[in-house]
Amino acid sequence: MSALLADLYEFTMLQSYLEQNMTKTAVFEFFVRKLPPNRNFLVAAGLEEVLDFLENMTFLEEELDYLSGIFPAFVIDYLQGFRFDGEVHAMAEGTIFFQNEPILRITAPLPQAQLVESRIMNLLHFETLIASKAARSVLTAPDRRLVDFGLRRAHGAEAGLLAARASYLAGFSGTATVLAGMKFGIPIFGTMAHSFVEAHEDEMDAFRNFARSHPGSTLLLDTFDTELAAEKVVALAREGWKIGGVRLDSGDLAMHAGKVRSILDAGGLRDTVIFASGNLDEYAVNRLLDCPIDGFGIGTALVTSEDHPMLDCAYKLQEYDGRPCRKRSEGKATWPGTKQVFRLRDSRGKLEKDVISLECDDLEGERLVGPVMHEGKRLHPRTPIARLRERTMQNYASLPESLRKIDAENAHPVEISQLIHDLSKRADRREIHPLS
Amino acid sequence: MSALLADLYEFTMLQSYLEQNMTKTAVFEFFVRKLPPNRNFLVAAGLEEVLDFLENMTFLEEELDYLSGIFPAFVIDYLQGFRFDGEVHAMAEGTIFFQNEPILRITAPLPQAQLVESRIMNLLHFETLIASKAARSVLTAPDRRLVDFGLRRAHGAEAGLLAARASYLAGFSGTATVLAGMKFGIPIFGTMAHSFVEAHEDEMDAFRNFARSHPGSTLLLDTFDTELAAEKVVALAREGWKIGGVRLDSGDLAMHAGKVRSILDAGGLRDTVIFASGNLDEYAVNRLLDCPIDGFGIGTALVTSEDHPMLDCAYKLQEYDGRPCRKRSEGKATWPGTKQVFRLRDSRGKLEKDVISLECDDLEGERLVGPVMHEGKRLHPRTPIARLRERTMQNYASLPESLRKIDAENAHPVEISQLIHDLSKRADRREIHPLS
Question: What pLDDT does residue B434 have?
């Protein structure tokens, strides 16, 4: 992605930083200020894409031409040779986290650390948003096949791709998006569309033709009349065609699933699975858990995080040249300093409490933020996504019951350490300057 | 964008269509089933990107390699030479439209028309969603500068870019996203970030350095204390620095705007404008209209269409080989046939009624759907975005008062013609088939 995918002010500030020789080391952290309603935890995601971006960030000639109409030559010169060569610390993808906890820290010369802000936020915000939404369906229906069906109403191409990645990382079985399958190695799934049935003069012909091309595949039942279509599936099986499953996509899914299951069972098709889709989210899936539905296609509500399509996240300067920084804007004040999250668990391994303190603190507990990039180079090769997914599952296992519920809001205790409180006071004393 | 950005079932169906020689002409239409709450109209957007996609759609070797692990050789052969060579009819971008009205029609051999479904929906859905959201701010504050600030919380890179495009098309003044400026020729705007102030030991130094680099630019006031910062701006002006504007980004914006305006005016800075940002949407802007605020930066709520991040849209087969098609799925039934929208206006040019009928009908009124692509080639060169924006403004002028309100839901009359009702009955009679 082009390095011009950034807010104009990143470049405007860059110019001033260069003019003032303000190129000393800055520390920025990305965190979520508070959890949205109906989210008891968040799932960190998007780190791999951030590291790709930082490793490859350069400016093309045409981009520099465009900027040279706006900025003086010394800015263009700086960008011409631009490489990100800073340090990155982060929580592993799939880690459960809470408000105010930094999931990514950039330590780099101020102009560099500033310039990467927009895209880092754009990536971490979205993947974390979707992984955190997907987690709720996974916890609700851990034993069902869940497939991302959202590409068509995802917000553009990248949203479709990254939603497939984030939802798989969070425990989905796969996606319908072919390119996500190729790009990320995610399992892909598909059935048929209503148009396929409609393009035939006869629904039975449509089913037969599809079964001929794709033995064992899934037939869509609701184009005209769901139960009548289920009868046709039974008839088709009697002709000798192999039918793997059927899909319901409209109407009262619980009612149709019951009737269709009976029809299939009566016809001897006990192994033919029922897959449901159509405006589903974790609440709908939860209501359908007692129905004979083996899997769910979840689309729009997942990939737009429909109930809360944004996280109140920030990428904030915490230190410049060794001096702690914070803003005190009303309702948006931040905690200064280079931070670490210390996680405490109970005897059964369940999350008990998190403490946010300074990196230099030596509190007990697991340290969640670790080094992932040194001098602009990854410290580890790209982790296979199946491995990331396993790690997410291990994280779910550490959730206490109260945080697993999708229909009750419960807050995990997150403490701000005394060290940080003290540092804030010192930072405040320094930053208040009377009019000179 | 890769042609693999598609749901798997598009390819699965393609295989069967090819096997069955079902390659006759199909007509698909894209429309929105119903308007979301708080939307009295929608603004068509995304057509240029759809035409780009259709003109350039091909499969790369590596993509075909991936597919060859899933599909038989004749499918790969077909895709190897794939070019979209169909017809496209559409409403012009910027056209106001309503439920069930097709804004795009694809007429092409069935396999082609099917294969383009996912990406067409992905593009039209998102840009239309954002243009329709942006329109509400523009109608609320037609005399203020409105700037898209949403990149960081847009759903990925393309969402950031297309949201900038769609909101400009809908009447915004510009965007903060540099790449959108370069790519689409949209004006770009920017101020400064809190980090710039924090990186300095003294806020006054930060302001002075920024004013030195960028004479006439906008200073951010709320890092520590908004009114104290406004006093510093006055002091700075007395030193001879030129300050174009100030930005408020937190707290009670109405209160701060009043106080800051007084401070600036008392200091002789009557021409220094006040720009506001921070979790704004059209409702917040509406409440702030009486305040001395000259412009608004609108971010997350705009680019995610936060109150309703999706449209209930569909891309449906309406005709195959001259035969009208429809599905009758519960709650998702569609109207068959190749359609046209006839728009009737009153004597003052305001929208009075729309009638959806068949293309072959000769009703009175403006026909909104026209040819834009023939045999896979654009009929017209790309329209400059400033021209599209003017057209949107002309469309707003045709809105009756009842539809302009952002806080009242009013429905524009949209009639389904007798011809379509008759055709539906005929299609239904044909499509009901008893079990054979």
Answer: 43
Write out chain B residues lying below 8 Å of A121, CB-based: 152-153
Contact yes or no for B329 and A228 at CB 8 A: no
Rounded mean pLDDT of chain A?
95
Q: What angle do CA B242, B247, B252 make, to 5 degrees?
A: 145
Q: Do B179 and A309 touch (CB under 8 A)?
A: no
Work out the number of other CB atoms within 10 angstroms of the CB of residue B356. Answer: 25
A8-131+309-431 CATH fold: nicotinate phosphoribosyltransferase (3.20.140)
Q: How many CB pairs under 8 A join A and B?
A: 362
Q: Domain coordinates of chain B in residue numbers?
A: 8-131+308-431, 143-303
User: What pLDDT band is residue B431 in, cutting at 50, 70 and 90?
Assistant: low
pLDDT confidence of B430, banded at 50, 70, 90?
low
Structure tokens at A34: 């508070």
Average pLDDT, chain B: 95
Indicate the pTM of the whole model. Answer: 0.97
Between CA A16 and CA B268 the distance in angstroms is: 27
Is-contact B282 B308, C-beta < 8 A? no
| Number of neighbouring beta carbons within 10 Å of residue B33 | 15
pLDDT tier at A176, thresholds 50, 70, 90: very high
Per CATH, the number for B8-131+308-431 is: 3.20.140.10
| A419-428 tens-digit pLDDT | 999 998 888 7
Average pLDDT over residues B153-169: 98
CB contact under 8 A, B16 and A189: no
Q: Which residues pair with B274 in a beta bridge?
A: B246
Q: Indicate which of B1, B2, B4, B5 best probes the interface with A, i.e. most A CBs within 10 Å of its own CB.
A: B5
Predicted pLDDT of residue B331: 80
User: Which residues on A lie below 8 Å from B32 (Cβ)?
Assistant: none
Query: Which residue among B181, B201, B432 places its CB closest to the CB of A224?
Result: B432
pLDDT digits (tens, 9 = 90+) for A62-105: 999 999 999 999 999 999 999 999 999 999 999 999 999 999 99
Q: Which residue of B has its CA nearest to A176?
A: B7
How many C-beta neighbours within 10 Å does residue B170 have?
Answer: 30
Alpha helical stretches, state H, B192-342 = 194-199, 203-213, 226-238, 253-266, 282-287, 300-303
Closest chain A residue to B222 measured between Cα atoms? A329
Chain A environment of B179 (Cβ under 8 Å):
2, 4-6
The pLDDT-based confidence of A326 (bands split at 50, 70, 90) is confident
Residue from the list A9, A194, A278 with its beta carbon closest to the beta carbon of B327? A194
Instruction: Give me the pLDDT at residue A429, please.
Output: 74
Asked if ipTM goes beyond 0.90, one says yes
| CATH superfamily for domain A143-303 | Aldolase class I (3.20.20.70)
Partners of residue B213 in chain A, C-beta under 8 Å: 12, 15-16, 19
| Helix (H), strand (E) counts: chain B | 17, 19
B2, B17, B310: residue with CB nearest A304:
B310
* Cβ <8 Å between B2 and A179: yes
